[in-house]
Amino acid sequence: FFGSECDGAFAEYTTVAARHAYAINSPLSDIELASFPCSYSTAENMLTRADVKPGDRVLITGASGGVGSAAVQLAIARNAEVIAVTSLAKSDSLLKLGAHQTVNRNDDLVETLGENSVDVVLDLVAGPKWPGLLDVLRPHGRYAVAGAVAGPIVELDVRTLYLKDLSFFGCTALDTQVFGNLVNLIETGKIKPLVAATFDLEDITTAQEVFADKGYTGKIVLKVARP
Question: What is the pTM of this model?
């Protein structure tokens, strides 16, 4: 991925291997389509690794961010019940996106949801509240992680892991079917783009400031000039 495994995401031109290029039959604009690849593929990979199925109760941390809001839509597309962890200010936007319930990120998860109350946790936050994520997982629950914006160092009581027979999934490299599945969901209209703002490439500094402020839900898209 540009910005991760290689540099160059803020260039006007680039080259990619043909095997990584997909034709998409969709009425969506280039800007809307550009909001999908990284965040939605990361989220779909988490759902795939955690084997999210219809009826699963899925807790998503960092749910208002690019990956989190994508995970909300993608979990709903799998007919799962979605609980989104977010700030009070962004709760309504996630409910409108389809989340069945929101939880204030400052609240105690066990007090709010109860122990052993969810089947899957999709975690993009980690941080000091991390032990509560395992407490709300049911026995044989699945935990998938692809971010640690609240801090990467967490405290694990190993007994929780083995006594509840939990499965952990670290999610970086995509399973082979993930992007093809995502393209199918785009073409069938089962997910929609969530573009919070667009900026011309020359305004990248302003775009980065808006990104750092975290006052939005979804994705920021940069526009490049057409030749």
Answer: 0.91
pLDDT per position as a tens digit, 52-94: 999 999 999 999 999 999 999 999 999 999 999 999 999 999 9
Class of domain 37-170: alpha beta
- Show me where the domains of the chain are located: 37-170, 196-227
User: Over the stretch 130-178, which tens digit does the pLDDT of each residue have?
Assistant: 999 999 999 999 999 999 999 999 999 999 999 999 999 999 888 888 9
Length of the chain: 227
Using CB atoms within 10 A of its CB, is residue 148 exposed (0-12), middle (13-18) or buried (19+)? middle
Would you give the distance in Å from CA 26 to the centre of its chain? 22
Helices (H), the chain: 30-34, 37-49, 66-77, 91-97, 109-113, 130-136, 158-163, 178-187, 204-213
Question: In whole angstroms, what is the distance from residue 117 CA to residue 137 CA?
Answer: 6
DSSP 188: T
